[in-house]
Amino acid sequence: MAGTLYIVATPIGNLDDMPPRVAATFGAADFIAAEDTRVTMKLLNFLGLKKPMVSYYEHALQKGEGILRRIEAGENCALCSDAGMPCVSDPGEVIVRDALARGIKVVPVPAASACVTALAVSGQDTSRWVFEGFLPVNKKQKRERLAELQGEKRTVIFYEAPHKLRTTLDDLTAAFGPERSITLCRELTKLHEEIWKTTLGEAQTHYAENDPRGEYVLVMAGAPAAEAEEELTLEQAAQRALELTRNGYAASAAAKAAAQGTPYSKSEVYKQLLALQAD
């Protein structure tokens, strides 16, 4: 009889937030699939447990087949990420998808999630929101992703590492303007936890002068209703696209972004953009 794949959330910072069921699941599992075995080892030491572990991090997902075979042979596996709910913006999603396709029982063992925790304390609109996770590293892909979010009315949540925060704030400010509201949540539940609601422009200025430290969740307000619904002329839409090209967007991506929320197609804005560039 096949075993079970448990998707186990771990504390996002403070180990005192460990739910009893999470600890019990680790204790009952035959082995643990960890994003980083070194991080999970610290957690197991805190719980006083010793368990066989295998890593499933992004560049070792070929091990996913071995994990699934062990479960099919009757072992129970507890899969966890370094912090929070695994398989969300995490390579473990591949193992879950394949497990379900093979008829393996998958059981969630929930606890804190950094994105929901940050949203709850952000002071931004929580009624409708969209999770973007980590933005692409590739500059072109990043600009295209941000272009897709032009006119997005829902609150938008990003994850970011400290060494990339300045660049991301620069890109967000260029895409959405310095007045857009944003809440930066740093080191949630840890000793140096910080929650700062400000604007993109102020955050950009602050971190130009101060080194980012710790892991960040960025909770950005959606486009104001008036801004999202404002009817622009074709020339105004093209002018918006022109501004985006000056901030590094390709003409096609800029036209696509500027066309959102308007009655004009991407091709119409693109043609008018070329006309402006020719002037």
Automatic annotation (TrEMBL):
It comes from the Bacteria. Pfam families: TP_methylase. Its EC number is 2.1.1.198. It is an enzyme of class 2 (transferase). One of its GO terms (biological process) is methylation. CDD domains: RsmI. Residues 4-203 form the Tetrapyrrole methylase domain. It catalyses: cytidine(1402) in 16S rRNA + S-adenosyl-L-methionine = 2'-O-methylcytidine(1402) in 16S rRNA + S-adenosyl-L-homocysteine + H(+). It is found in: Cytoplasm. Belongs to the methyltransferase superfamily. RsmI family. Catalyzes the 2'-O-methylation of the ribose of cytidine 1402 (C1402) in 16S rRNA. NCBIfam families: 16S rRNA (cytidine(1402)-2'-O)-methyltransferase. This is Ribosomal RNA small subunit methyltransferase I. The lineage of its organism: Bacteria, Bacillati, Bacillota, Clostridia, Eubacteriales.
